[in-house]
Known about the structure:
Blueprint: E1 4-8, E2 47-49, H1 55-58, E3 62-68, E4 72-75, E5 78-84, E6 88-93, H2 99-112, H3 114-120, H4 126-138, H5 144-160, H6 164-176, H7 184-196, H8 200-217
Antiparallel strand pairs: 1-3, 2-5, 3-6, 4-5
Helix pairs in contact: 2-4, 2-6, 2-7, 3-6, 4-5, 4-6, 5-6, 6-7, 7-8
Amino acid sequence: MTTYYKVLSEHNLGNYSGAVWFLPEGKRPGKWMPKIKGELVICVKGYHLCREQDLLRWLGPNIYEIESKSAILEIAGHNDKVLTAGPVRLVRRLTTWNERTQRLFAADCAEHVLHIFQGQYPNDDRPLKAIKAARQFVQGEIAFEEMAAARAAAWAAAWEAAGAATGAAVWAAVWAATGAATGAATRDAVWAAAGAAAGAAAGAEHEWQAARLMEYLHGEVG
């Protein structure tokens, strides 16, 4: 059985619609959101949900499992989300997805493409230090100011890097060590890492990221 997800903002609103959702209470799912009448229009009208492979595109601070009483539709030409008329409800929030795991996942994605930068700049360790700082901050081993300093150094390295792929690899490190790792910054790190792996390698990188993300969501790492 396919599991579907809904990604909400820091305040549990629809990331783009701003819609207010009924939240789960303890182990009880949220109340049913009303059925949408009339013709559904992708990106305009309907409840938009994610499959596992869609989550990387829409990462945010809160991820919920969700269910619908009506058919869930895949729309031709839109391979990053699905659509339903509902009624729908949030079943449970994935508590495995939190500030700690968001930062660690971003660091993993940045480190996975760091070799692209290191191949051209083998003596520049600023991006590596930013990734390390992100992990140390999560572990409580360094203060926020130390992570911020490492991020600033990686930022400078990103601007100095020659080539789009090389620069993207560093930007992933920059976002991994950002101050506000509340989903959006993690998403930026993921996108930068995928952008660093150009061409055919981008698909493989996306698959690796998706598999790693599910390991975090299932509580297997972090």
